[in-house]
Design a protein that fits this description.
The structure is a homodimer. With about 575 residues, the first copy, chain A, is of the alpha/beta class. Chain A has two domains: about 290 residues, Amidase signature (AS) enzymes (Alpha-Beta Complex), CATH 3.90.1300; about 170 residues, Alpha-Beta Complex (Amidase signature (AS) enzymes), CATH 3.90.1300. Helix content of chain A is about 40%, strand content about 10%. Chain A contains 19 helices and 15 strands. In chain A, strands 1-3-2-8-10-9-14-15-13-11-12 form an eleven-stranded mixed β-sheet, with helices on both faces. In chain A, strand 4 and strand 5 form a beta hairpin. Chain A is globular and about 60 Å long. In chain A, about 55% of the residues are buried.
Chain lengths: ~575, ~575
């Protein structure tokens, strides 16, 4: 990087390089107009995808892995199909950052040759394309993370997760967009711009793994990797109608990825998968857990995939589970479609023979307060240090008009001393202790002899919002702070008839009033509705199993409804 | 606590209460004079212990558990014997803080009745007395932790570990002495005074679990619980010639115990056992791991005792292990007895058919530097906040003349901001990553096809030092910072003939020179010599198994030597 260049010049150069990395023959000239909001049907209609490309990209992970392992489909074919669809998605939503399809096809070709020569797959994810959030480093590829200052920062080695995924047989082909600093629940930065929601481009795709969310919704990847420090996997998953899993801390290797707030160890970001099927989530997690990554990342817990936990041995083998629904967190009442999503889930679970009770949230505001204090403890210094190098402006809002507002902004979070941080940690420790005891005490209410098996919670108090309106991550950050694994499941979509605005209720807080006022069904047209299934710390395998049960109940209910029609 | 009382008055009152808690008939009038340094033979000679008391207290944990489970010995008998011997130990070394033998005997009696009535033990530690470092809370008992300000602070509930130990059948009867702040490798505070080393009372028993070390050396407990943030279990174990284990973070529950530097989560203290046999260490760990304590402490990793790890499946089933010896850490050359201890271990392991190579320490000084920076980040504020209440003086040295020097001392550690702390965390993360990669790269040198299986390291650069001379914890803190489990094994004792001072070497550092100058065999008479066996993060089960192998090799060598004589 030449020192004399302005940040705008650096961005212009980087954008040219990005454009040049797109195969020319995949550049579309028939893109829908910006006023066309829901573009989810465009990829299959645009003419770029062959019938086989469409068949491949519509196949869930389980089917893809079977066809790849049996050489019915080559990795070249599968990688090409997803690459094409990813490039279409990018042209519709601006979801990609780094694009390295040549490299991916070379790898796919090697995998095909290996299978042909040996008759054996390299690993359980043999030949499967996987997209990566921008921060996950691949040797020789930039990890700008949307910071102008990091343009030209080519990774010197792979992240540990990249090595693990390649050992499993995966093909890596694109990286996806994020917000500046990663600490926003929407996706916009000065280098790559804004990612929009494929279901309604006037809405955000969420963040910080917003590029992944948009890509997934358009089936541009069978599995993607995001990161989640306060909801950054789950919010885009929910906003874009895909599955997404925030594992417990220390089970998926983070070493070698770049990050924001590095050294902030009190409430660590975790990597985890997004996928269009729950099977994709399981394949990813089971695969990564099999790789003994604690041998390569000292922060990974030495704990293999636990099949007993997956079989729900501690949850009555999953036969009659008791779920508890968080209807609201005591601070903000969710919008009508979110409540309807919870009701759909409740009905489906009851129909499947499970028990459903209400969850009274304990200290959610206080718990989220400790998270905010921890992130704010040094974030201003962190952000300003990074952006100082090229004087790119600090982004202080995700609103659309931000893009015209490029003056340098002060970074204003309150910094505290290490001793003061320790006091926050004490509060967090005590709140986690109380929450665990509170959960376990539900054994007297469930009728199963066990405490509540899993929580069912909104992912946010709203579906995808208009740009700049996603102001809170309280329904997700709570579970980062408690370190609970949580899996997002799509349930439905905003319905202009069913999801009418409700009469005014007694507001729980100022935020609740603002949230109530934000809602008009018309502003949230076609937005996906999702829930998250939440277990206790390190119950990752059990949460996947219980989410499968919830997902199957929802599917059975939908198919029952179809039959009834 | 009356606000008007001086700290000295508060201490005087507390000491009276402590004295009153000692059964009168066990107060000895025939104590050896203070000039008698090695008092390890006094307990059995003093006349207080019956022949059966002596037999019981000389029996290792495995034998005790067998006799207790089969009702050959009652818990009343066993608890009485260890209580008597603990009270003798206390009169010789000042090792106890809280004494609650009545309560213990009531519990023992209940356990005996249960066994009689049901024919079944309560758990695998049925009837076994276990001592606790002062900070581990029992409902209704003070947890002063040696702070005058905390006199009268009666615990409102049990620590999670206490509940787990009681569920396993243990009997709790005494708590043990610690230094003010816990952050010293010796043991002295204004409330309970100084604990001395039973092998040589002019030497320190080590710290911060120094009361445990002294108690163990005099066989006043079959198992004791200490805590280790920089060596606080291992240093007293080594100085007092007993076994001691620092587990990985997050495997033994800490919740509910009081602590110093609370909220300092970067480099947490861990609880772990001391015992006079390695079997005692294993019984404790296997028992605690069986208790699913993650259901009661959110910081415990959901990871059961792993029998495969204990069987050394990843270490060639333990058949031909490769150990690497740390002869010095690149900063301070250990004293002659410590080097001799390592040589003894090397010879024993070679004779047992294992391989032994030299370990070249990587960045030990830098790694320890991150630990010091972390502790110092807020310690001054932490200590001064606690002592302010009663104006007890801050202890700024462990030297004997400290006791005459009660003026208030300033607390001088450098405090840093949360952001600066994050920068230290980044260094620590990178250093841990490098160390792991360095260790794994030894696979090319071991000849076993595996990396080095375990390290053999000094526990300190010296055996127990004269009071106030234990200035560094570098040989232990390194493994806290790396979060490696480490188990201390006694090897020998300082020998006035074999452990002559060596000729001057080229000093590695100023500390090295000071350490060289400190040594004269006469000043370290009878001090135990120990080593520690170190594995990688969460290899707790494997470290216990490998330490058993080392211990057996040492015992075989000793018995071979006896045969040869």
């Amino acid at each position: 990087m030449a020192q004399s260049q302005t940040w705008q010049e650096l961005v212009a150069e980087k954008k040219l390089r990005q454009q040049a990395s797109i195969p020319k023959e995949w550049i579309l000239t028939n893109l829908p107009s910006q006023s066309e909001l829901n573009i989810t049907e465009f990829p299959e209609a645009c003419g770029l995808l062959s019938a086989k490309d469409i068949e491949i990209t519509n196949t869930h992970v389980g089917g893809l892995l079977e066809k790849l392992a049996s050489a019915q489909w080559s990795s070249m074919e599968v990688t090409t199909a997803f690459s094409k669809r990813a490039i279409i998605a990018h042209q519709l939503t601006n979801c990609l950052t780094e694009i390295f399809i040549d490299r991916a096809l070379a790898r796919a070709s090697e995998l095909d040759a290996h299978l042909k020569a040996t008759g054996k797959v390299v690993g359980p994810l043999h030949g499967l394309p996987i997209s990566l959030k921008d921060q996950i480093s691949l040797k020789g590829i930039e990890s700008t993370m949307g910071y102008v200052s990091w343009i030209g920062k080519y990774a010197e080695r792979n992240a540990v997760l990249v090595d693990a995924l390649e050992a499993l047989g995966a093909v890596l082909y694109v990286k996806t967009n994020i917000p500046q600093t990663l600490m926003w629940p929407e996706t916009f930065n000065h280098v790559f711009g804004r990612t929009v929601n494929p279901y309604n481009r006037s809405l955000t795709s969420g963040g910080s793994s917003g590029g992944e969310g948009a890509l997934m919704a358009l089936k541009g990847a069978p599995i993607g990797v995001g990161s989640d420090i306060g909801g950054s996997i789950r919010i885009p998953s929910a906003f874009c109608g895909t599955y997404g899993f925030r594992p417990s801390t220390g089970r998926v290797p983070y070493a070698g990825s770049v990050n924001s707030l590095e050294g902030q160890d009190s409430l660590p970001s975790v990597l985890g998968p997004l996928s269009n099927s729950i099977g994709g989530i399981k394949s990813f997690i089971q695969g990564v857990f099999s790789q003994s990554t604690w041998l390569r990342d000292p922060n990974v817990i030495r704990k293999k995939w636990d099949e007993d936990e997956y079989r729900l041995v501690e949850h009555g083998s999953g036969k009659k589970l008791c779920f508890a629904i968080i209807w609201n967190d005591g601070q903000v009442v969710p919008h009508p479609p979110i409540i309807r999503g919870l009701e759909i889930a409740k009905k489906a679970l009851l129909a499947a023979g499970h028990k459903v009770i209400d969850w009274k949230p304990l200290n959610h505001t206080k718990i989220n307060g400790t998270a905010t204090a921890i992130f704010g403890a040094g974030s201003a210094m962190d952000f300003s240090t990074v952006i100082a190098e090229t004087k790119e402006p600090y982004i202080s809002s995700m609103a659309l008009d931000q893009e015209d507002f490029f003056d340098e902004q002060p970074v204003t979070a309150a910094e505290i001393s290490a001793y003061e941080l320790w006091q926050v940690h004490k509060r967090k420790r005590d709140l986690r202790q109380e929450y665990l005891e509170y959960w376990l005490a539900t054994a007297s209410e469930t009728g199963t002899g066990r405490p509540v098996d899993a929580l069912i919670s909104p992912v946010a108090a709203y579906t995808a919002t208009p740009h700049g309106k996603n102001h809170s991550a309280h329904y997700t950050m709570i579970f980062n702070t408690l370190d609970y694994p949580a899996l997002v499941i799509p349930v439905s979509k905003v319905d202009q008839v069913l999801d009418q605005k409700k009469p005014v209720h007694e507001f729980l807080s100022k935020e609740d009033q603002a949230n109530y006022e934000l809602y008009e069904p018309g502003s949230f047209k076609d937005a996906p509705i999702s829930i998250q299934v939440v277990g206790r710390t390190h119950e990752d395998e059990a949460v996947i199993a219980m989410a499968e049960i919830v997902d199957a109940a929802l599917k059975a209910q939908r198919s029952g409804l179809k039959h009834a029609l």
